[in-house]
Amino acid sequence: MRELVFALEYAPGTNAVADILADNPEAKIRSLSCHVTPENLWRVDHVTGGQGALDELAETVADAEYYTDCLARRDCEADWETQVLDRTDDALVLYSYWSRTPSCTSIPHLAIDHFGDGLIFQTTWAGRRYEWRIIAPRETAYREFREAIETEIDETTGVSFVRVGDAERAVSDDDGDSTLTPEQDAAVRAAVEHGYYQTPREIETYELAEKLGVPGSTLSYRLRRAEAKLADAYVTDHSP
Predict the structure, then answer these.
(1) How far is it, in rounded angstroms, from Cα 126 to Cα 118?
(2) Which of 9, 11, 77, 121 fits a disulfide with 156 by CB distance 3.0 to 4.6 angstroms?
(3) Please, which residues have CB within 8 angstroms of residue 187's CB and are 6 or more apart in sequence?
């Protein structure tokens, strides 16, 4: 199996989703599944973040005048819809469906145009960086595909190609990164310093959030994500 990893970089003000993610560093969109035919595209995405970011993203993807994965630099009149399948305090599950038009294309459509069927897609969107990983079942030449992407995107969107070669790891729904983000690290250190983990607690979540200058929902989300990563790392390191 061969893989191609590349990333789109959106300039400020050119993509509403990228702007929201850039303003909320703890938020991330990761694909759970992505399927494409020559005429259609449908996908399910898992969105994590604070309540404010999730509210903005849910409203934006429902009301946007363009489909997120459309690369066209004009109104292509595509038939699309995005629905919220599930919602919790710190996560969204989105379902999207899109019918392709003659003037509208996407990265998955360009991929099957150049590589054929049997492809696997993984995406991770954090901040202004929208990273794609495409797994092809056979030896594939990528130069024409790369040129096609560069032709479709406009001057407000950059593209960088990270890796081309043999697939290095199995496809997974999680990025497997146990390292805390800077925001999570700061939240955990502040929680320990101010006695958040003492019994009884010396400070409540809303009080700690005020000290850090962040919304309570954002701090709560950062602590839960950090705790989950630390617990996974502990179990992995101390497996019998």
Answers:
(1) 27
(2) 11
(3) 212, 219, 222, 223, 226
* C-beta of residue 100 within 8 angstroms of C-beta of residue 41: yes
DSSP, res 181: P
* Residue located via tokens 């309570």: 216
* Cβ–Cβ < 8 Å for 119, 63: no
Domain ranges of the chain: 2-166, 182-237
Beta strands in 50-118 (DSSP E): 79-87, 91-99
One-letter amino acid at 22 equals: A
* pLDDT tens for each residue of 93-146: 999 888 887 777 889 999 998 888 889 999 999 999 999 999 987 767 788 888
- What the block records as the tokens of 14 is 């050119």
Query: What radius of gyration do the chain's Cα atoms show?
Result: 20
What is the C-alpha to C-alpha distance for residues 230 and 219, in angstroms, rounded to an integer? 16
Closest CA to 132 of 170, 163, 96: 163
Distance CA(98)–CA(116), nearest Å, equals 19
Identity of residue 112? I
**At 72, is the secondary structure helix, strand, or coil?**
coil
Q: Check pLDDT > 60 for residue 174.
A: no
